[in-house]
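Two folds, back to back.
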Amino acid sequence: MQLENYWEIKYAGKITITGTKVLDNKQYYVFSNGTFDTYYRNENNKIYTLGAFGNEYLIYDLTASINEIWQYQIDGTIWNAQLQSKTDTITINNTKIPNCYRFYFDSPQMEDEENTVWLAPGIGFIKIKCMYCISNDQTLINAKINNQLIRFP
């Protein structure tokens, strides 16, 4: 995570790291999509985020075993998170991105809210699939990671 990194995702818009914020002696990076901010921090390859009321929860566990499930609660709603794969290959405009991590999220309290997020090594967000999104083809268009531009022509 670095300031000014960004991911532009088809149908989802641009997510930019716009700053940092220290809460409870923990430094979070501010991810902004222009409408709202999300706070993330990495500790030992476990990515934590904050809910609306300041509760921290583990969202992406890069150290988890395949099919391992963990739970978290966002402002009253319980969610299950699962690491389903560490070896997916995502193809974007004839470019293959190997060894992507696939995370699946589901709330047993709700219906049709499931979503899947793929993270690529050295890139981060690469693809999003969700039941309530405009399109299931939410793939990375371009990004800037650690001052390096990544484009998928």
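---
second:
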Amino acid sequence: MIHHRTDRTPRPIWHYLASRFPNDRECLASFLALETSELLAGEKPANLINVVNRSQGCGKNLYRLWRKYGSELLHASGLAASELVDRDESLLLFIYRLEALDALLARRNVSVLLRRAGYPEPFIPETVLAELQSRLLARGKFPHEIGVFLGYPLKDVMGFMGWAPLSFACQGPWKIYGDPAPSLKLANTFNRCRRRMAGRLARCATPFDCLAPSADPKEARGIFFRRIN
């Protein structure tokens, strides 16, 4: 079998941009803008972000900055966050666009998968995220179905879980099963969002503007579902 590969362009890393933003609020805003770039572009419902509790190369501690400014900055962005695990040395954040996650959970094929995975109804963000957090804390590792919430194609999630008779095709940002073309296209779309955001931040655009959604939520949701259906 030939294993296809995604776009080999390096994934932009926030550390290379951090020195441009010595102000604490700007520092955290730039980090959040880059790490949620696909959400802000309306291409993805959610991201997982690990915030470590130690000084970065720029001298900033993102964990402490999150505790001080995180809620304020996210509120202005139109995004929401659930703190899944706080181990003191790091904080695992599930950051999402509420409208997109709501629409995702309302899909019949997603409901079928979550019901089979043992998630309690109703399938709404509050109950689903509470169950996700419970499973993560109990097992100490990510449950396989987490890919659903992160906007990965259902065929890849079901293939990874062994619930669909699909062969492994290639390794992208996630394991891809069956026809790799739509999954690779989506992965490259995510990567382009991040590269565009890195370019905006590198040109010294204010990170507060960068953290604002780039599309109306209804329009963004439409873009997202055209990509993954």
